[in-house]
Structure formats: C-alpha cells, structure tokens
Design brief:
about 850 residues; alpha+beta; globular
Length: about 850
Amino acid sequence: MTGPPDAGARAFDRPVVHRPSAPPWYHAAMRAPLRSSSSVALVLALAAAVAGQSPPGGGWLRPPEPVARLVESPPPPDASLSPQRTWLTLRTREPLPGLDVIARPHLKLAGQRVDPAAHGPELAARTLALALVAIADGKERPVAIPPGHWTGPIWSADDRAFALVRAADGGGELWVADPATAPPRRIANVRVNAVLAGGVQWLPDQRRLLVHACAAGAAPERPLVPSGPQVQAAQPGEKAPVRTYQDLLQDAHDEALFEHYGQSQLLVVDPAAGGRTMLGPVAMWERVEPSPDGALFLATRIERPFSYLHPRSAFPRTVDVLDRDGRVVRTVAKTPLQDKVPIGGVPTGPRSVGWSASLPHALVWIEALDGGDPKAVVAARDAVFRLDEPDGEPLVWFRTEHRATGIQFGSDGALALATELDRRTRRSRLWRFDARDAARPGVLLVERSTQDAYGDPGSPVMERRPDGRALVRMVGEAVFLAGDGASPQGSRPFVDRWDLASGHKDRFFHAEPGRHEQFVGFLDERGLRLLVRSESRAEPPALVVVDLAAARRTPLRAFADPAGEALRGVQKRILTYARADGVQMSGTLYLPPGHDGQRRPPCLIWAYPVEFTQASDAGQVRAAPDRWLRPGGSSHLALLLAGYAVLDDASMPIVGPQRSANDTFVEQLQQNARAAVDALTKDGAVDATRLAVAGHSYGAFMTANLLAHTDLFRCGIARSGAYNRTLTPFGFQNEDRTYWEAPEVYDAMSPFRQAHRIGEPLLLIHGADDDNPGTFPLQSQRMFAALKGNGGHARLCMLPHESHGYAARENVLQCLAEMCAWLDAHCRDGG
C-alpha cells in the first residue's frame, strides 16, 4: 500500500484501487446500449479507472441513484421492551457513520480495537433520537438527548429508571433518567471505561449502579528506543497450535497500553443520593457480577503474562468472590495462559463460572474431564460443579458425555436446563436438573441435530425479575419456547407452551400465513398478551399486541419505510432444486422492480458454504420469504435497484463427517454451482447465460474457487476473503486438521494455487484494516498479484479504514458502485 500523498494528508483517505490494463470489454462497453444515465456514468467511471485514469470528480465512486438513496435513507427505529414490559424504547440511528468516525485513531490490543480517547470500542453509527412508548396507553414521548454515540438504555429490572452512556473523549459519560417524569441527567465526576466490559450495570437493589470507571493516569508513551527485541520461544515436544488471529500485542509498549486502557476502578454509584464508593483495587476487571442476594461479587480479572500469539481470551485470569468491601472471600480459579489448548478443545480447570440464579449466592462452573482434548476417548467429557456457600467445598453436580455448553435456571427456583454438544456429530442434548436437589438425577428432554432447522424446538423465553435475575419464564411446570419455524415453505415463527411434567406442547402462537411475525415479548404475567413484530412482503414492520384470550390484534406502532417502497415491485420466491447426488438445495430468487417476464435479467448468485454432517439437514429451507424487503449497508440485494436479479443464499452445502468433509470441498462446490445454474435455466425467469457469482468472507473464498474450477459464470465478486490456506495453517472455519496433517486438502482448497486457471473477470474488495481471523488484507493483495502475474483479468479495491464488514458511508457507496459497474461491464448486453 502507498503512503500519504503529502505530509498533511492521511493515508487511505481514498480507496486504493489496483487496475489491470483495459480489457476487450472496455471498447464493447462504449458501444453497447445502457439502461440509464446513471449506468452510463458508472460504466464510464469504471472504464476510466481500468484504463488507469481517476474517476471523474475525485477518488470516490457512487452507485446508481436508486441504490445510493436506499443506502443513505434512515432505517426504521429499533424497538425493545423494558424488563417489566412497562415501556417500549424506540431508537433512531443514522443509516451509516461517516468515514471520519471509522477513521478515528484506534489501538490494536490483544485481538480487540480500542478507541483511546473514548476508553471503549470503536465508534459506529450515532443515535439521532430516543423515545419511550407507554405500553398501557400507547403514548409516546421523546427522551431529551443530543445526537451522539449512546449505549443503552440500561434498564433497572423494576423499570423505575434507566442509564445511558455517551461516548466522549476522556471516557464515557454516565446519564440516568426516570422514564415517567425526569429527563436524563449526567452523573458528575464519573467516566466509564468500556474497554473490557460493558461498563455499567444495576445492582440487585435496582437503586445503585456498578460502574467500571476509568483509572487515573496518563497513557504510556512509546519510547524512541525500544527496551529490547521481541523474543518468543518454543519448547521441544510442547505442541501449542494457534489459529490465525489479528490485532495482537506486538511489543512491551503494546502490553503497557493494553494494561493501561484495560484497568478500571469499580465504583458503586447511587444516582439519587449522589454517593460513590470504590470497590476493590484498580485492576483489569473483565467481568464483575453481583450475587442474586447482593451480598457478594464474582469478579474476573486479566493478569500478566500476556501473549503475542493469542488474543485476550487466552490470557491468564483470576476469578474471585469479593465481599461488599472488595475483600477476597474465596479464589475460585487461577487460569494460566491458554496457549496449549487443542484445536476445537477447551481449557482445563473451572470455566464458565457463574452464579446460580436459584440460590442466594451459590456458584456453578464446568471443568473438562478429558484434558480439554476433543480427540480423547473418555466416558464423560465434562463435569458441572456447584458451590452453595463460599466457605464450603465444591461438589460434582452432574457429568456430561459430550461438551457441556451452559445452564439456564427457571423462575420456579428448581428448574435447571443444561445443554451438551457433540461437536463431531453436531448433536445436542437438553437435560432437566433440580437446582434445589443436587442428588436428583437429570432427565433427558431433547436430543437433536443442531443443523436440523425443521426440528428446531426453539429457545426458552427468558424474563428479567424485579431483582435483576434472568430466568426461564415459567407458568406452573410449563416453559415457553420461541423459534423461527423453518419449513419447506419458509420460516413461520412460533411460541410453544411446553409442559415439562407431561412433555406435551401447545402451539401458543403462530405467525399468520403470509406474514413474518417475530415474538418480541410477553406483556402480562399469565402470558396471554404478546408483542410481535409483524410484517409482510407488502407491509413494512409494525409492532402489534396479540391478545390470545380475546383473539384480538391491536397495532401499537407502525413504521413507515419510504426507502423500502422503491423495492415494493420486487418479486420474491423460494427456488428449490437438487444437485446430482440427490442433496436437496434452495435459494431465494429476487426479480428486480419492473420485471414483466418479457426480458430476462442477468442474475447474481450470492452464497456462503456451510458444512453439514447429514444430507437431510443440508437440504432444508431456512429462508423467510414473507419479510418486508429492506436491505441496508453494503447488502448485495441493493443491486436489485440496478436491474439485476439475485439468487440469494443459494445452498452451498459441504456434506460429510466433520473431520473429512473438506476432502471433497471443490467437487461439492462444483456440484452445488451446477445445480443452481441448471435450476435457474429450467426456471426461465433470468438469463442463465449472464450469471455472476459473489460472496463475502468464506463466500469470497467460494467465489474464487468456482471461477477456478467451473466455466459457469461471466464474472465474480469476492469481498474480504482468504485465498491461500497455507496462511491459516492451524485450521479455518470448521477444518480442525492442520496444514501438516492434510497438506493436500489445504492446497486443493486454495484458489491462490489455481490463479492461473481463473479466466473470468474477478473483482476483489477488501477492508484495508480487516481484523477477522485469517482474512488479512494481504490475502486479497496477493490474490490480485497472482491473477495479474498470470495474465488474468481482475480489479482490487481496498476500502480505507474498514474492517471485515464495511461501515462507513463513503466505503459502502464505493463498494456498491464497484459491484454495479463490474456487473454492468460483464453481465449486461454486450458485456
């Protein structure tokens, strides 16, 4: 990459675009008819760029105006319920932040990005407005806050108050409000540090707040002369495989910065009385949770030594129980640096330590019985421990055959729902235990494939009690399950009432046919009034109160979506088909507005490969065809407004045993693509001779492979992908084998190795500051160099300051402009 053009300018304030010489289509593009004046401008801009000239008007491209208007239009507000269902919060955000926000200076520390001025994560879109709607009468009132980067509202569990945090230089500002009477007011002399934790939570009394406050002191300055070289060592016989992480610590100065910005002083803040009390010393507090009775705190802090090869999740930790004065009552766990965890494994010692929500201050945690190694052959992989009193002795509550993944507690004080997962077969089990009687054996409730969308029973509906505990909602012996309701016709969300004593289930709520209605929450204790988000292909989302007892539906809030109206004429349907070996497949076919069936438009196939252990799961439909269409950001569906059809989420299953499915990755991709093209040809709605293939991340990897191994597509678009698997030698996606265990698989799957075989034009787009494991910006740069060096036709656009997903308005518009122009050049008439 090049540096700044002059001393006063920043690097990457324009997209970095690498261009080959003008290909034959350049001249044809100038002769062929175009659909609109905006298409003319865009193709001229791209053609000029390919020829080595700057686009007219500067360094940024803009897509056709219908696409740009969609991207720049504000979306409908976000809606959420307060814990006791008294208030509905409506938050209006700007559609996209400007590049000036994304380009703010940030630090890359231990696998995360820190805004040093704000003492928190990188900033994103601003909140423009906040409003509260009273559920009782539907009246709406605005919350008086200026536009800014706000977190919250963080509700007290009794709905009496809420807190907000406003990002600001020097640390987050803490604001508190009474939703019924008082506007938000700032709490003086408190600066929130959100680097390692959320920063603010209510204590069980719901009157006081626990705050991670910025510690005093200036950030260390980088010395002109380093204190010494960076030295790492490997010991003979000690295997320490590590995935390919980014944004890691690089030197002693990075360590000092991470420690400085990660440290916080715990404060107990009383907003009403104005008091502040320090809790414990300044430390790198990562998680601090009060016990259900408020008498104790479970506190996790990060400690040295840090690592230059692992993110902070692998750093040493100490988990303590603290009293109200911050004194250590008991040390539950001291975890060393997790640098020898097997691939796909877990650390040894206590993990997932948490309070039991059913007892005043009892602890529950999980420990591996197999050394954390998924390859070990053992009767039980994990044991779940409980400690009822801090000064007692931990007892084994139960053991699991497979890896224990979590416990949820019921509102009756007795129910404990525990899950375990066999990663190899993708099967899970749900068990019922008695939280009050540790000796009572568990009862197996469900065993299923986690990839079986049709058989997904849904997830337990949680509720937050007035004391702050999050519990599984129960009425008698029954719990409620909310799910997507996947089916061959598409998803139809539901809520079931499941009687655990008898095992009987009632379909409590089911979305109306032809509508997509997502459960938001219950509005009464008995569970007879529900709030749902209801939408259809013809109607934008609205919040509706469903009264099951009275069989009545009452609109609470409807959200106009003028930008989405431009897509009202889009035709949408599920396309089902099968590949040569019989595996069932599907995708959602979108036809652009104004399609009359007379002219068949070119089509973009957008996909992402997914591994399945069973062919029956791979063929299931997971689409939601009855939703209102409102793409946002850099969504490929915006291309519908440029006249292109889209086969969205086209099935790309890789079927086989978890350890060896990738042995036939390329062959299965070929079958998948051929099946999709044959289905589009048979369907006849699009021109199957003018197809493009595209994807993001692993979908970009797929795209390059399909251009290398098939001749089905006019061109491809690959966004933020990884193309050389030798750069991710300790596994990727669901591949657990290392490069040295399966070099032939890594080589066969790497499109970089096949760059000389890619004859179709390939557009590469990548965030210049990508932080996703494995998808270094170098991946696209080297892929482009390989294509150019072998005489291929390619274009590389590096979006300044962007990470794995694209956020800044300028970059999103550039990305869509590149995509539109690439398709115009290669898939339209004469391309």
